[in-house]
Amino acid sequence: MCPIGGALFDGFSRGLTASLVCHCLLVETNEGLVLIDTGFGQRDIKAPLSRLSPFFMNLNRIQFEEKYTAIAQIKQLGLNPRDVRHIVLTHLDFDHAGGLEDFPDATVHVMQTEMEAAKSRRGFIAAERYRPGQWDEVKHWKYYSPSGEPWFGFEAVRDLDGLPPEILLIPLPGHTRGHAGIAIKTSEGWLLHAGDAYFYREEMGTTKPRCTPGLRAYQWLMEVDRKTRLYNQDRLRALSLDHSNEVRLFCSHDAIEFKAIALANN
Description:
By secondary structure, the protein is an alpha/beta fold. It contains 11 helices and 9 strands.
């Protein structure tokens, strides 16, 4: 996504447009491949006006290139997209759930409150952010409420149906009603895909957080509960400071974080 604003959005671009990513994760497990969020899908690329909100298409200046879709990236890795058995969603916004129907046999895991919000679509932003055409053909859903032991003091959903115990849903509402982070235990510690709980790298890992004007405004535009969103940001910031040797955090749209994670995994 390349909104007008350059560095006022992403903090590094030199031109008029910014560069934002849709950061997904592919996890190899004994139960098959697990995809964390999907970004935009093939159908979004081929027929965007029938799938997406013109408001957000223009605001975010979405770049419709098939090579960026999750299914194309999986094929590029030499893997079979049919081996994606599960998809775990941070939330159901258009830029996180657009590729669900590219994986018709996958089970989709999401917080119950998020699906309820997506179905009700109350208000202008909700009607534009949630696009039922992106997921009305999904056959297999699993819905969750917080349960099980806390994770570093956060509520958690453990033992996701059909998934290994190393993958957890961490409720982080505020951006949406049912927004969640996805925690993954690796041999090198925990990864936390924080979704849209924050948007800019300098919001974490510091006692003096900073966010660009563009992303600060976008977070304000998209929040459903400001108090809860900021509270969860504060908690994540404390986690990033107090447990930096145990947990690595990243958000969905920061291109610098994306590159850093990609380099670390290569």
